[in-house]
Design brief:
The chain is an alpha+beta fold. It has 13 helices and 6 strands.
């Protein structure tokens, strides 16, 4: 078995682990700091909306145009009086985007571009996008996002509980805010590809969160029938038991997306790849972070406010104090439990407690998994 596989097995069985829930205030602080930075960037720089959202014209020159990108950008801005975005495509042609112009203006700009770029005007392809169509696209995108979030909350509230639904919703908002803020800070253009990327990473983030929630739901079954573990400790065990799987799936997903972003977008200069790959790259990383460091610790915070969980925590701490005063471990104390709710009942032991070794000197309950008398 590989070292990573051994680590995954130890994490799954609770033999090793990191206390994510205990340090949750640190993770909350980091997330708040990143989110505030994203919001400030969004407020100061704003989003660079693509031509599909604000209307304008797109001019595509013939293949192997000899003019450089900077020269074409200068010519386009001089001809239109507006900011222009110029991208060199793989076949050597140029894609020139100019926002805020109408049909009449585009014809004049096309004529001037043909002279400046020394290209026949008939060979320049012009596509017009009306601002009303861009508004429709933006409205549909917001509607789709809103419907998605509402359905997610309803599903999680039914499948799990409202606290998990709330935690997942907070994690999703966290991922969206960070991704949009990065777009504002970097200055990448927001296109329909960006919207597709956002919806994709929301689904991925939700998948990662639900995996942890499912493990947590299973391990907290009949949690009040034992006195060894608090809800927060079992939540932490759920994170650790799925940690390797979350990291593996995130890394595997990020590798091809990184190829699209840094090679396809940076080296080849494919503009659309930049739009969708940046949202995927940032969103996948933020989603993995939020599912581990935000969603589950937040569920533990909400659950431990319940009277039952407060009482459970009080019993667990009292039992540990009693065992410490007698110089015994919790396992030693478990061997004397004869009450109606044994600390590790047979039906609850697999869900909340990992394998443990009974003291060699004791013979009570030997041969039975529960450790009870025959």
């Amino acid at each position: 078995m590989s070292k990573l596989g051994e680590l995954g097995a130890k994490l799954h069985h609770g033999e090793v682990g990191y206390d994510f829930v205990k340090n949750r205030k640190l993770w909350y602080g980091i997330s708040i700091l990143i989110t505030i930075t994203a919001i400030v960037g969004l407020a100061v720089r704003g989003l660079h909306m693509g031509i599909e959202f604000q209307g304008g014209a797109v001019f595509t020159t013939p293949k192997n145009t000899s003019v450089s990108v900077s020269q074409a950008e200068e010519h386009a801005e001089t001809a239109s009086g507006h900011d222009a975005i110029v991208q060199k495509l793989g076949d050597g042609s140029l894609r020139i985007q100019i926002a805020g112009i109408d049909t009449g203006t585009s014809d004049q700009i096309k004529k001037e571009l043909s002279e400046d770029l020394r290209v026949d005007a008939e060979q320049i392809n012009a596509e017009l996008v009306g601002p009303s169509w861009g508004d429709q696209i933006a409205n549909k995108a917001w509607q789709g996002l809103g419907i998605f979030l509402v359905l997610v909350v309803i599903y999680l509230a039914i499948a799990f509980e409202w606290r998990m639904a709330l935690a997942a919703f907070v994690a999703l908002i966290h991922d969206i805010t960070i991704t949009v803020g990065i777009y504002a800070l970097v200055g990448f253009e927001v296109t329909p590809g960006t919207v597709i990327g956002l919806l994709t990473i929301l689904g991925y983030s939700l998948y990662d969160t639900v995996v942890v929630f499912d493990s947590l739901k299973e391990q907290t079954k009949d949690i009040t029938k034992q006195n060894r573990w608090t809800y927060a400790e079992i939540a932490n065990r759920s994170i650790n038991s799925t940690l390797v799987r979350s990291v593996n799936t995130t890394v595997v997903a990020l590798l091809p997306v990184a190829g699209l972003l840094f090679i396809g977008g940076g080296v080849l200069g494919a503009g659309m790849l930049n739009d969708i790959s940046l949202s995927l790259f940032v969103g996948l990383a933020a989603g993995a972070y939020s599912s581990i460091f935000i969603a589950t610790p937040l569920v533990a915070d909400l659950k431990e406010r319940e009277p039952q969980m407060k009482a459970l925590k009080k019993r667990v701490l009292a039992k540990r104090a009693q065992a410490a005063s007698k110089g015994e471990s919790v396992e030693d104390t478990d061997a004397h439990a004869d009450g109606p709710y044994d600390d590790d009942p047979e039906d609850a032991a697999p869900a909340v407690v990992g394998p443990r070794n009974q003291p060699a000197s004791r013979t009570r309950g030997r041969g039975r998994p529960s450790g009870k008398r025959r």
